[in-house]
Design brief:
With about 140 residues, the protein is an alpha/beta fold. The chain has a domain of about 80 residues: Nucleotidyltransferase, domain 5 (2-Layer Sandwich). About 30% of the residues lie in helices and about 15% in strands. The protein is built from three helices and five strands; from the N terminus they run αβββαβαβ. Strands 3-2-1-4-5 form a five-stranded mixed β-sheet, with helices on one face. The longest helix is centred in the first third of the chain and has 17 residues.
């Protein structure tokens, strides 16, 4: 009886190549991680937040702030908003996506920056699924 100790690597390479092609072709759902929004029972639909020119500000759990897809500091927020209002004919409304575990201080800092830019219409975006219930 003679033992053969060689591995046919062509099958392994073929499977790896197929997985690589599938991962490159399949579209990714988003570019990164978004905030974990608070869940509410009776949300109001904000269809304007889905517009391409909507001013959306995200406050992440660790206090990082994004204006659209640009990471900014809260101190830069008023100038960024005023630049967007000057450059584009957008409605003077801001949508805030705040993580439900973000500190109140970080959210208030963003809200103060929005108010100092003269924006009166602010909407907080939430998860429209039913909230988690605790207990039986």
């Amino acid at each position: 009886m003679k033992l053969f100790c060689n591995i046919d690597a062509s099958a392994l390479a073929a499977v790896g190549f197929v997985l690589l092609v599938v991962m490159m072709i399949v579209p990714q759902p988003h570019h990164g991680y978004g905030p974990d929004l608070p869940r509410v029972s009776h949300a109001v639909s904000m269809s304007g937040a889905e517009r391409e020119d909507a001013m959306v500000i995200a406050v992440m759990r660790d206090g990082v702030v994004y204006f659209g897809s640009d990471r900014i500091s809260p101190r830069q927020l008023p100038s960024k908003i005023l630049d967007r209002l000057r450059d584009h004919a957008v409605e003077p409304r801001v949508y805030i996506r705040a993580d439900r575990r973000a500190f109140y201080f970080n959210v208030k800092e963003v809200l103060d920056g929005v108010r100092s830019a003269g924006i009166k219409r602010v909407a907080f975006l939430v998860d429209q699924r039913r909230p988690l219930t605790h207990g039986p």
